[in-house]
What we know:
Elements: E1 4-7, H1 26-36, E2 39-42, H2 52-60, E3 67-71, H3 74-79, H4 86-96, E4 103-109, H5 119-128, E5 135-138, H6 143-146, H7 148-161, E6 164-165, E7 168-169, H8 181-189, E8 205-209, H9 214-220, H10 222-233, E9 239-243, H11 250-264
Helix pairs in contact: 5-7, 10-11
Amino acid sequence: MHLHVGCAMWSHKSWQGRFLPHPLPAHERLRHYASWCTAVEGNTTFYATPAKDTVTSWSAQTDPAFRFVVKLPKIITHERCLTDVDEPLRLFLDAIEPLGPRADALWIQLPAAFGPADVPLLAGFLRRLSSSYRYAVEVRHLAFFEDPRAARLLEETLTAAGAEWIPFDTTVFFQSPPASAAERDAWVKKPRVPARLVALTERPIVRYLGRDDAARTVDGWARWVDIVAAWLREGRSPTVFVHTPDNADAPELARRFHDEVRARVPALEPLPAPIPAAPLTLF
């Protein structure tokens, strides 16, 4: 029984001196983040395939039980739309090979224009993928959330491939107008889709977006605490990523989510104590 929790990144300016020591060399930030959280979203790989030496450093800074959910590069998912992608996919898989078991899932985030008519294209792509990894798909076309036939088609396609459907729950965020600069920026960038609360595999992945007001974020995730606790009792091992528009308190919030689930499922192991952000003193 495992619950991994994490954030959208492992380094953030507002975390310096609070969650991570400051100053801290870039090549040590992930190690300190990994003492707070047990998973991280690999968003940077969407923009470019990293150098293999860089990924080797990521592996060296984390325990084998740490989990990366690594996003496929946009050249594969957005620019070439899953077509004629053998070479960029080969380069990507070679680059992330040092992660080993830390690569919990390869994350296929599809553009909002990818709709039900494109599902056969996804099915063919999934069939060609290496069996060395598990895969998780995020869609943003409204039809998959509002049309039961479209949802069923996608579910059947993913189930046949043993792949998960990643929900990005933004419903709490969009309940009321933005109240900060970060919220105003997120208001025009984040997907506005209904919540999806169903798991397809034994290792579901959830992305949850709250508000910059921590109390509203915590209130809004109540249903996810119930759902994740139920998944654990069923023998599943979920991963939950906690976002806020400014992400200022995200590591602390991720740990709080884990604590709330553990209060429902006492058999769940507690998270380890984080590395202190400042040296310990006698006074």
